[in-house]
Amino acid sequence: MAWTLGIDVAVRAAHQATLARDGTTVWRGRKFSTRPADLERLWADLFLADATDVTVVVEPTRNAWIVLAEWFRRRGARVVMVPTTQSADLRKYYSKHTKNDRIDSELLARLPLLHPEGLREYSGQGPADPLRRLVRQRSTMIKRRVAVYSRLDALVELLGPAWYAVLGSNYGNAALEFLARYADPNTVIRLGQGRLSRFLIARSRGAWREDHAAGLIVAAKETLMLWGPDGMNFAELGDDIAHEAEQALFLTRQIKQIDERVANLYADADPKAIVASAPGVGPVISAVIAGRIGDPHRFTSLAAIRAYTGLVPKVSQSGLSKVESSITKAGDPLLREMLYTAADQARKIDPQIAAKYQRLMTGDRHHDSAICHLATLLVTRIATCMRNGQPYVLRDVDGTPITDAQGRKIVKERYQIQPRRRDNIRHQRMRDRRKQAAGQESQESPSAPTSRPAKHEPTSQHAV
């Protein structure tokens, strides 16, 4: 006898649960919170109903579901998850015009009968896993720092181009330390070359010396000449630049600390460094793949892992017609981003992947589309290695094991794509799109707006 407990998880409000037996509702709308006392009472009610073999069905709602899943798993219940998109579609079928927590919990309790293929066995700790959580946090901080750099670029542009010639555009620690204190050109001139040199030597560990100090003083004088005596309030501009530079320094320190933690967690999660053995996969990408995929055995097949990345195309098939459009983008976006980057590097090392890239590009495929195709191949191989517990072996197209240096040499000699070839493919696609757009425009009604210049015919009044 199958007992199913469907729980509509709430973040701040009370959860609602429905108990079903073989698809028949026993009771519905039981409210409880994530408190030990409430959970014990709910568990006791299940045994009063003789529900000895219980399957708990939840939706992964933010991080609130993970605590419930762990609690019920420790009590011996089988915990399964359902993707929110699938449950939303089934909810429309079950109750089209009404959506509330009670209906959601009842739908989840009936899901093992309505759609058993959509259930995912709960394994691991999900967002509670430190490596999975930390690689996501690192990605967020990297994007925040990139945004800070963009704002810093816009502010330094107000000082003039001479500052870039000295500080560079990559904003190392020495440049950020300088901008956090001396972004005002008047302050730079008053500081003098001697004191500025000592500051730069200390902050750059000797890489920047008197020549950089002299260049900054020249840049400061040039800025004053560009703006004139009353053209800019440099004190306020310097404060704005200092705020952005301090944020960049803080984020850089945080990212460095996270990198150390990620390295230690990855060493524990993948002691044989199986993921890192794949071509194009460095320390950061290997940690992301290991953290976001987790246990590869939790997926029913390799196709399920490819679908989880969101790199597989959408398929629309009817009869003899089959159309594959853009990728689904369903799944983990960070994993998809890292796999794309890894595949773009792997095609320069692995001859088998490089040969496939050349074949795809010869068939007039776009570069991004080809890389997405290679990324699905790469993640399939990595997942296979993880399941088998064996490292990735680089091979030639005939199956002969080779080294990374040999792979790069083979790719460069046999499978190099000429830049002109890629440009021709891109231009051809642009021409095809223009033709298609022109064809659609010709089919529009006469009153529709057009991109072509209007033709003004003379009227009979003005005709000669």
TrEMBL record:
Protein name as annotated: IS110 family transposase
UniProt feature, compositional bias: Basic residues: 427-436
Annotated GO MF terms: DNA binding; transposase activity
BP terms from Gene Ontology: DNA transposition
Stretches for region Disordered: 419-464
Biased composition, class Polar residues, residue ranges: 439-450
Domain Transposase IS116/IS110/IS902 C-terminal: 274-358
Positions of the Transposase IS110-like N-terminal domain: 5-159
UniProt source species: Mycolicibacterium duvalii
Top-rank lineage group of the source organism: Bacteria
Listed Basic and acidic residues bias regions: 454-464
